[in-house]
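Protein entry
_____________
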Amino acid sequence: MTMLLSWRHTPWLILSILSLISFSSSHMIEVTASRKECFFEDLHEHDQMTVTYQVGEGGHLDIDFWLTDPENNVLAKHIRESTGTTSITAEKDGRYEYCFSNQMSTVADKMVSFNVHGIIYVSEELDVTAPVEREIRSLAIGLTSVKDEQEYIVVRERTHRDTAESTCDRVMWWSVLQALVLFAVVAWQVYYLKSFFEVKRVI
């Protein structure tokens, strides 16, 4: 009877651990030309945070990214990257800000998908979780990594599909143009040869 009750409460136990130990969010934003979009997370000392991003549409599929600590010190910076991952461990309490900048472009807007996930630090004195709960925590971290990888693959597949469709359309219209030019040249040659062999009569 005791085992049955414990398994009945296992789902609630898992949800409680995930809500207390880790945080995760996924977003899709449009960064317009000559603009930047910034976000923030409030972290405590020893908390961990990972930001993963991918440019799906626009221009050369590149974006500038940087992440700063509460004192505005740059912890990570990527210039004109199409994808990237940054992981940090907070050294102090405060607001950590990360930005996506499209200021290098004056025309093209960019579509950026990004995930933010992390682990809330729990000191050993307060960490009295059972071994099963520690395993669940480890599995939650692994599942988050798998989710990020799947979303990255989806964005890459969409980008490659759009590129392939665009290339196919260009090849089709180029073939149509070549056919029209070919018919025009053939018609001109036939007309020219016909006029060359014509006998002009003078009355």
In short: Helices lie at 2-8, 10-21, 131-197. The longest strand covers residues 22-31. The mean pLDDT is 79.
